[in-house]
Design goal:
Layout (H helix, E strand, L loop, with lengths): L1 H55 L9 H4 L7 E2 L6 E2 L23 E2 L9 E2 L7 H9 L3 E5 L8 H10 L9 E5 L13 E6 L3 E7 L4 H10 L12
Parallel strand pairs: 2-3, 4-6, 5-6
Antiparallel strand pairs: 1-8, 5-7, 7-8
Amino acid sequence: MSNKRASKDRKARLAEIQKQQKASERRVRMIVIAACVALLAGIAGVVVYALGDARSQQLPNLGVTVAAAHCDPITNDASTGSGEHIGPGTNQPDKTSATYETVPPSHGQHFAQPDVSGRDFYTATDRPPLETLVHNLEHGYTILWYDGTKVKDTSLLKEIADKANKVPEASGKFKAVEWDPSRGAFPQGKPYVLSHWAKEAGHRQQCGDLSGQVVVDFVKKYPKDDTQEPGAA
């Protein structure tokens, strides 16, 4: 009788131990599952943040919206001056300054050599002569001119210039340049002007604020191949 009772007790203890082990295993599984869920949620959060941050750094998302930029309609300036070189090495060596019909110019006479420095941003302290940059316009460049008397923080300009040069339609042919106010004044409330010398006309767009999307729209409308001299450097 005692042997049967002892055997029954052992079975009961074994069953209780197995029950406790299973309960412990369930707790461990739940902890592991909860940790994995938390880890995945954390990773997902990081990925979403990274993607959102990457999107915010893309050119169309830089600066203000198109509406907030308060841009004027794009102009269609009658094109003159194609192939008309002035200054040293030309048939007008003593003419060292051109008179332009618009501020800033979208076409006109220019020096014999464009700016081939590879730089995409200039301030008043280091910009090439205006007549040099007009030659760049003739070669399909888009220039974003800015009024340095109004624009003091140029970090966004530099970022936009860098990213605009990676847009296929403007690849390698986009510059942001501080305007020389001695060559004429920008309209009131319009410290930014885009200009491009296309095959049929010169084009300008004056803006009250800086918008990456406006830049994208402009260079897609007037790509580097829409130019007086396709294929020129």
